[in-house]
Amino acid sequence: MTGVDWEVVIGLEIHAQLATRSKIFSGASTAYGAPPNTQASLVDLAYPGVLPVLNAEAVRMAVKFGLGVGAAVAHRSVFARKNYFYPDLPKGYQISQYEHPVVGRGSLRIVLEDGSEKIIGITRAHLEEDAGKSLHEGLAHASGIDLNRAGTPLLEIVSEPDMRSAREAVAYMKKIHTLVRYLEICDGNMQEGSFRCDANVSVRPRGSDKFGTRAEIKNLNSFRFVEKAVQYEVARQIELLESGGKVIQETRLYDSDRNETRPMRSKEEANDYRYFPDPDLLPLEIDDSFIRAVRATLPELPDDKATRFARDFGLSAYDAGVLSASRELGNYFEAVVAATGTPHAKLAANWIMGELSGALNRDAVEITAAKVGPKELSGLLARINDGTISGKIGKEVFEAMWSTGAAADAIIESKGLKQITDAGAIEAVIDAVIAANPRQLADYRAGKDKLFGFFVGQVMKATGGKANPAQLNELLKARLGAADA
Amino acid sequence: MPHNLSIGELAERLARKETSSTELTRHFLARIERLNPPLNAIITLTAEQALAAAGAADRRRAAGESGPLLGIPLIHKDIFCTDGVRTSCGSRMLDNFISPYDATVVARLKSAGAVMLGKANMDEFAMGSSNETSWYGPVRNPWNTAKVPGGSSGGSAAATAARLAPFATGTDTGGSIRQPAALTGVTGVKPTYGRVSRFGIVAFASSLDQAGVFARSAADAAVVLAAMAGFDPLDSTSVDAPVPDYAAALDTPLKGLKIGLLREFFDGLEARNAALIHDAIAVYRSLGAETREVSLPNLPLSVPTYYVVAPAECSSNLSRFDGVRFGHRCAAPKDLMDLYERSRGEGFGAEVKRRIMTGTYVLSAGYFDAYYLKAQKVRRLITDDFRAAFEQVDLLIGPTTPTPAFDIGAKIDDPITMYLNDIYTIGANLAGLPGLSMPCGFVDDLPMGLQLIGPHFAESRLLNAAHRFQLATDWHRRAPRGYQ
Fold first, then answer.
1. Domain residue spans in chain A?
2. Is the pLDDT at B270 greater than 80, yes or no?
3. Would residue B119 show up in a list of annotated catalytic residues for this protein?
4. B408 falls within a domain
């Protein structure tokens, strides 16, 4: 099978924890990080006789998601029991939706870094409850059970096998991540497990209309892990097939320390879940007026915002996508543009995606908590636009603003960073530089054009980078004279 | 003696200050001490709490409160969770389980001022028709202690028949109120599915379970049911419909009432039993009711349908008993599988295991369609049969059981024969309909039951029809010898 042009096929099942205050079937709090078992009610503990009562807020959020991906919201959906024994599953079954999910077929557009677009199909999304956690650390000869998470509402979002590379998978997952935060139905916190996915991966010879046998990689909780795990799994499957082997359908776990996927023990997956409709819960019926009411609460969706950014501000599709990736980032961008004016939108975009994003990532700060807010950044950009400082000095000013919280003008003033625009002053420095470097002058005049940059550098060094670059170029050219051939 | 008085008569005496709840409570506690040991009807006596509750009821009355159940003693089936009191469900699995909360039924009766004396024996997890599957041993029938009292609410039925309390609660999943009521000669009411909250009832088969009442007359049952019934936001399957005034409708004349005789219930019915039912029908005719035969062709499929649906649900409902958080845990488990296997192996009895295995099987991949799905379809057909019948008649009438109480030990090793005991009662559960059983005579000195089945939420009509019958007859006044 060597020499085959392999096509990668990926589908994702994303679990988004819904941001309800209480659990999906009980009144217990869903807040993260409480001491073990302090947020587990009798319902969560599955005491004899207790019954589930559906949280309407979770339904509202699921419907919101459905509308956000243009999906049909089911007027009637059914909760089913998925039966298996595990200590962190107190009832011995998980309440989920099986044959009749609340959200039907929808789709989502992704934009890749090269600007190309693709539509990814969404098969369905259904409501279910999360399990608790088993704790194995710090307990000798025993396992602990923390049921705080048991009963937390999840929306499981199942995609079509429409992705053809690890990058597409990551782009899709990021897009869902963006969407659920726009809709304010999930906090998107991946470290706390609020947003995670299972990836179904297979390969087939390009042109084949049949899918290859897939492996399911469980519980990936970062974009990087999705990319790495899929890449590893694709390589594994191709190597296996090319060496005459066969892919077996199985569940695998990704080990990020070793960057490899491994099969789960067969015992862990040899379950017959015996799904059947949960007789404790009536079918979920949603009428048009409920759907209309939810639709009225939808914010501007990321795609609409990106389209608007590209159209109104002349941004590329990719930049518009990046700036609309979260509501907060989009708001920040729009506030800066409002202050600096639409003609400077591109500059604002570059600064936000460049310096600002870099600083936010480096210091792990949320954009809403940044010391350099939209007002402060527009203050800086105004000084670049009016020629008070150069873009290069601007970066230095930004760093100072970032660390001290002071305004751009105050920093420019106190550090004396104001650009030198006095032609006489610049000429004086040029003359001094030329006088100090007679050999380079001779070489330049002999035709070594590249030495122009050397002179620029020397002048900038002497002025502490403050010489107005355009002016410097002009004056330097005049002083050096044309390079003789 | 107070134990022969109706709830209405007791309430009157309390209102007139001729007696107190404390006095009544002492009286019934003393009866239980004396009469329960051979019957084994009550497995947990809560004398101290009962006297405290009786004192509280007396103070409420002294403060000017009144109410039909204020200060009236009762016994709860041990399937109802009772705050601070063992709730065993008749199982070794929950022998050590002290419930941290009250079932809605318990809370409602408590707030009505009823006084819990203790908790009644039952078939393990309500799975049985003879009360022989209880971890606490069989209950004996007060009419003849060699006989079973029926099940699963056998303790509640025997306690009511033996006048150990004015009334008792029960649950009915496939006949578990009506069948023991019939075999012990008391009045038992199984309301419409959704009429009474299931919150706090240890679940057996969630789509069939329904709480009801044992009393010595329809009039008494009406008072109790009124206190139990009504919407409960904690039970998503409870129905948000107003509770009618059952007591007010009791006396409505029956003239023109259309009663359907269920042909399928009379096919092969033993002659002496059939004669009693026909006598009862004659009473109804004399009261002005019209009777006609109706047929429910799918009704004979009730038992096999039930024995797919109920075990399927039970296999899932009982998964929570895993030795991890409460209930029986095996000694020194080696690992997780050992913990599960031995805790459940030791905690559950044979009948419960049989049903868990049956239920697991019918839900398994490859069998689901042939069993569970098929049973659900048949269930719908049976429900449709009832609906069609109720377009012609106001209520249906027939026997509650094929035979009177049988000997302890006679059927326990033969599950199929045991299951057929519920042949007349299961239909109402599958269709979610209200049913009532009341005494209508004796065969071999053992009481037999007449069953009434009504359309959804027709409890008022059932209680009215039963009450008018009880005004015209005195079968319900008979007491077993030694318990008068």
1. 6-294, 302-415, 423-480
2. yes
3. no
4. no
Q: Is A51 on the interface with B (CB under 8 A)?
A: yes
Residue A262 backbone phi and psi in degrees, to 5: -135, 145
A:260-289 residues touching chain B, CB 8 A cutoff: 272, 274-276, 279-282
Q: What does the H/E/C string look like for A259-325?
A: CEEEECCHHHHCCCCCCEECCCCCCEECCHHHHHHHHCCCCCCHHHHHHHHHHHHCCCHHHHHHHCC
Nearest chain B residue (CA) to A27? B234
CA-based R_g, chain B, Å: 21
Token pair for B408:
């302890």
- Element (H or E) spanning B219, and its range? helix B218-228
The domain defined by A423-480 carries CATH number 1.10.10.410 = yes
Interface residue A151 vs chain B (CB under 8 A): no
The CA distance from B143 to the nearest CA of chain A, in Å, is 33
Instruction: Write the burial class of residue B249 (CB in 10 Å: 0-12 exposed, 13-18 middle, 19+ buried).
Output: middle
- Placement of tokens 């392999």 in the chain: A6
pLDDT, residue B181, reads: 98
- Nearest-CB residue to B81 (from A48, A83, A274): A48
Range of the domain at B97: 2-257
> Number of structural domains, chain B?
1
| Percent of chain A residues topping a pLDDT of 90 | 71
Mean local confidence (pLDDT), A466-476? 86
Is B36 domain-assigned?
yes
| pLDDT tens digits for range B472-483 | 999 999 999 999
Cα A387 to Cα A390: distance, rounded to the nearest angstrom: 7
Which residue in chain B is spatially nearest to A54 when comparing CA positions? Answer: B236
The domain that holds B68 is classified in CATH as 3.90.1300.10
Q: Which residues of A touch B81 (CB under 8 A)?
A: 47-49
**Can you give the C-alpha Rg of chain A in angstroms?**
29
Residue of B152, B302, B315, B343 marked catalytic: B152
* Structural domain includes residue B48: yes
pLDDT at A266: 58
Residue A483 in this model has a pLDDT that exceeds 70? no
| pLDDT value of position A485 | 35
Which of A93, A460, A118 is CA-nearest to residue A276?
A93
Do B168 and B156 touch, CB atoms closer than 8 A? yes
Q: B290 vs chain A: nearest CA distance in angstroms?
A: 38
Identify the weakest region by mean pLDDT among A426-430, B51-55, B80-84, B324-328. Answer: A426-430
Length of chain A: 485
Q: Tell me, yes or no, if B77 is annotated catalytic.
A: yes
Sequence-separated (6 or more) residues with CB below 8 Å from residue B445:
B143, B144
In a domain, B407, yes or no: no
What is the pTM assigned to this prediction? 0.90
Burial tier of A443 (Cβ tally within 10 Å: 0-12, 13-18, 19+): middle
Cβ-defined contact of B100 to A47 (cutoff 8 Å): yes
**Alpha-carbon gap, residue B85 to B81, rounded angstroms:** 8
pLDDT (0 to 100) of residue A389: 85
Name the burial class of residue B416, with classes exposed (0-12), middle (13-18) and buried (19+) by CB atoms within 10 angstroms of its CB: exposed
DSSP letters along B358-405, please?
HHHHHTSTTTTIIIIIHHHHHHHHHHHHHHHHHHH-SEEEEES-SSS-
pLDDT tens-place string over residues B188-246: 999 999 999 999 999 999 999 999 999 999 999 999 999 999 999 999 999 999 999 99
**Residue type at B279 in one-letter notation:** D
